[in-house]
Amino acid sequence: MTASFRFAAFGAIAIALASAPATAGTTPASALAGTGLTGLADVIGAPTSPSIYEPFISADAGVIAVNVSTSDGYVGYTVDSTNGWRPLPRPGDAANWSPRALSADGKTIVGFANPSGDLGANSYAVSWKAGAATILPDLAAIRSSNAWGISGDGHVIVGSSADALENGFPNSQPVKWVDGAAPIKLTGAGFTSGSAGAANQDGSVIVGYAASAGRPRGEAFRWTQAGGMVGLGLLDAGTLGFSQAAGVSSDGSVVAGTSFNASEVGQAFRWTQSGGMVGLGALVAGRGSFANGISGDGNTVVGSADVQVGGGSQVESTGMVWTQATGMKAVADFLTAKGLTIAAGTKFHSVQSTNADGTVLAGEALINGTEQPYIARTSAATGGAGGPAGGTGVIGVDSFLDTVQQTAGFQSGVSSILNMAVEGAHHRTLDAYGLPGGTCGWLTGDLGGSGGPRRRQYLGEMGLCHDFAPGLRLGFGAGYGHMDRTLPLGGRASADGYHFVAEADMTPTGTPFTLSLLGYYANWDLSLDRAYANGAATDHSTATPGASAWAIRARIDWRDAVKLGSLGLSPYLSWNHSYTSIDAYTEAGGGFPVAVAQSGSTGDESRLGLVAGLPLAGIARLAVSGEWVHRYDDGVFTVAGAGVGGIAPFAFTTTALGRDWRRGGIDLDIRTSPNTLLSLSGHAVAGDGRDADLSGSVSFRAGF
């Protein structure tokens, strides 16, 4: 686990590693900002127009703690796949509060708060647990403390607290709080000030930096109960250098960090009890390397290093990985040596964290032309952190989650099959076709499509109806529907299934009004083939979840409310309530499958329309219609889940449907015999709604 204070947080990533954490329970994270997906800002309940910075995620990938800049200042939030965004409770009189770390299970969050507009003045350490904020005690009656880290088990919080004022400024001391009790000052080796930044799994080993008379600019330290604080030294023995510990292995025996010389050129180090501080070198002689974290087993150190660009003296930062076997390597070379392919144009800026055995790397990179977090996995993963098993590869998190969102968009589109039946095959009531009373039947086929991501759908339906009393017609039908949609990078999604429909039409004797009530139920099988970039290749993960929907429509028609010779004008009004549900599913295949929770969406819409009908030559009838549709909700699905390899839990809403749209139609009824007719219809939509952009229908109807 990386320390989040001073130099160690070089930028962070919204991912968590599926295996056990290296140390404490938190992996730093950053907002998932990318084309088509703004990541955390898309999550349900997000604050309006926030500036998100320094998110942190629990080791089990269940909870993200986020610092958000709003018009009122800095506020802490949590984000999870069940509740979306929730503000952390205000600690005391705080005007600003900032989470910095989480326990492994995400149940305890630590950070600091401030009563003024400046997070650096008069701060006090805070823990949040079970929906309540607790201000941690100070060493002295000086309001100046900060919590920077927490052990994986959540019992030990580490940070700093002032014990006195020196020249009017707080003199911060490294401390730990055990189960929220009074702070315990970490002492030893003549250190006079400093801060603790990270702890191992059970909190028995704490690392950070501290200053002493001999090391006025600070020195990395390691604390244990038995030995107290022990300075880990400097790679450059001069007093103008300084060092800082960035992480510690799960058992506390190995520490990683960076040592800076008098010129402030850094070199990553790895410390052990037997070998002391050992410099890990650099990728370019005389240039810097910086450790951000260490694997749980202590064998892999990750961070960044300077490299030359363009063959000249100009340098830039790239991610680096160090192991005993390979030495320090640029992450691109390290991954290539492991058999992974890297897409052209990819630039790895850093490696921020790694998992228990160093087989998963996470950092920031330029991938697919977008600056974004990435995950690289060099060994096949088993399921963990709520996600499925997967293979190896490299993904940009933003680009990857964009494909997840595109697939989720298909789930929202599934409800259009419902509309094709309720407002397509049944866009007219059963008694509107002029067939003689008694028993009747129908056979209908509908075809429709929409642009954007290409969507095509069709259905077939057959049914029987009967007049059970004068002015009362009941009908029952069954049908089969299909929809498919193209997804990015050659992916595809489809839905196939059966539906049942029942309709009751009542025309009170002596009135021009028809009252109609329709019920609909469907079950579908979905086939999802999600394609995404995995290194230089395109990978595929698939799933076959189930889906279902039901709807109720109430409608009133006023037949020939206005007559202009043979032309009749008939207004109508309808209301439709529906619910669509997608079963939970886990993808299979590919390097980075995801598991998605059950999702559902409720819809309410009304339609106000007018039909102009005109008889033609005694054997046909032409009708032109127009309707205005208003939807009372956004028609969105909340899609939540987790991915393999430590992708953070995602919880975002699908793109909202339009609230208002218009639809025009034309119907031609051709009487093929006294008791049969062939009905042809077509519809076009203006606006963004749930109906297909273009659709057509052929229906054969008979009375007998």
Ordered list of secondary-structure elements with their pairings:
Blueprint: E1 26-28, E2 51-58, E3 63-70, E4 73-80, E5 84-87, E6 96-102, E7 108-114, E8 124-129, E9 132-135, E10 145-150, E11 156-166, E12 169-178, E13 184-185, E14 191-199, E15 205-212, E16 219-224, E17 228-231, E18 242-248, E19 254-260, E20 266-272, E21 276-279, E22 289-294, E23 300-308, E24 315-323, E25 327-330, H1 331-337, E26 347-348, E27 353-354, E28 360-367, E29 370-377, E30 393-396, H2 397-413, H3 415-425, E31 439-450, E32 455-469, E33 472-486, E34 492-506, E35 513-534, E36 537-543, E37 546-558, E38 562-564, E39 567-582, E40 585-586, E41 594-596, E42 599-616, E43 620-631, E44 638-643, E45 650-653, E46 660-673, E47 676-686, E48 694-703
Antiparallel strand pairs: 1-2, 2-3, 3-4, 4-5, 6-7, 7-8, 8-9, 10-11, 11-12, 12-13, 14-15, 15-16, 16-17, 18-19, 19-20, 20-21, 22-23, 23-24, 24-25, 26-28, 27-28, 28-29, 29-30, 31-32, 31-48, 32-33, 33-34, 34-35, 35-36, 35-37, 37-39, 38-39, 39-42, 40-41, 41-44, 42-43, 43-46, 44-45, 46-47, 47-48
